[in-house]
Write a structure and sequence with these properties.
The protein is mainly alpha-helical. The chain has a single domain (about 10-125), classed as Orthogonal Bundle (434 Repressor (Amino-terminal Domain)), CATH 1.10.260. About 60% of the residues lie in helices and about 5% in strands. It has six helices and two strands. The chain has helices at about 10-20, 30-35, 40-50, 55-60, 70-80, 85-110, and strands at about 115, 120-125. It has a two-stranded antiparallel sheet with strand order 1-2. Helix 3 (about 40-50) crosses helix 4 (about 55-60) and helix 5 packs across helix 6 (about 85-110). The longest helix is centred in the C-terminal third of the chain and has 23 residues, at about 85-110. The chain is elongated. The relative contact order is 0.10.
C-alpha cells in the first residue's frame, strides 16, 4: 500500500502562502521551506537577499532571528519569485505599488516653511 497525496503542488502552494500571510515573524523552518520551494541553494538565496550565507544558516536553524527587514524582504522575494502562484505575485506587486505610491504622495506633501529673500530667511507665507 502506498500513500498518495492528491494535488501535491496545490497543497505546497497553499502551505507556502500561510507564513507569507501570517503577521508573525517567520521561523527558520518557514524560511527554509520557502527557499526550498523556490528551488534555491542557501548560498544563492542568501546572496539574493544581501545576507551572508552564515547568517542565513543561523536564521534557518533558529540560532538567530531574522531582522524585521530581512523577514519582509524574504516574503516579497518569495512572492515575486515563485513561478506557480501568479495570484501571490500579483498581490505582492499591488502591495509594493501601494507602498511606493503612498511614499511618493508623502514626499509630495513636503511643506516649505522658510524661504530666503534679500539674503534673509523669512516665513514662506511672507515671501511673495
Amino acid at each position: 500500500m502506498v500513500a498518495e497525496i492528491p494535488a501535491h503542488e496545490q497543497l505546497m502552494r497553499l502551505i507556502a502562502r500561510d507564513p507569507i500571510a501570517n503577521p508573525g515573524a517567520l521561523t527558520g523552518e518557514e524560511i527554509r521551506f520557502l527557499r526550498k520551494r523556490l528551488g534555491m541553494k542557501a548560498v544563492d538565496f542568501a546572496k539574493a537577499l544581501g545576507l551572508e550565507p552564515e547568517t542565513l544558516s543561523r536564521i534557518e536553524n533558529n540560532k538567530q532571528p531574522a531582522s524585521e527587514q530581512s523577514d519582509k524582504l524574504i516574503r516579497f522575494f518569495y512572492a515575486l519569485s515563485v513561478k506557480d502562484d501568479p495570484e501571490l505575485a500579483a498581490l505582492a506587486k499591488k502591495t509594493i505599488d501601494e507602498l511606493l505610491s503612498s511614499w511618493m504622495d508623502h514626499r509630495a506633501e513636503t511643506k516649505i516653511v522658510k524661504r530666503i529673500r534679500n539674503n534673509e530667511w523669512t516665513d514662506s507665507s511672507k515671501a511673495a
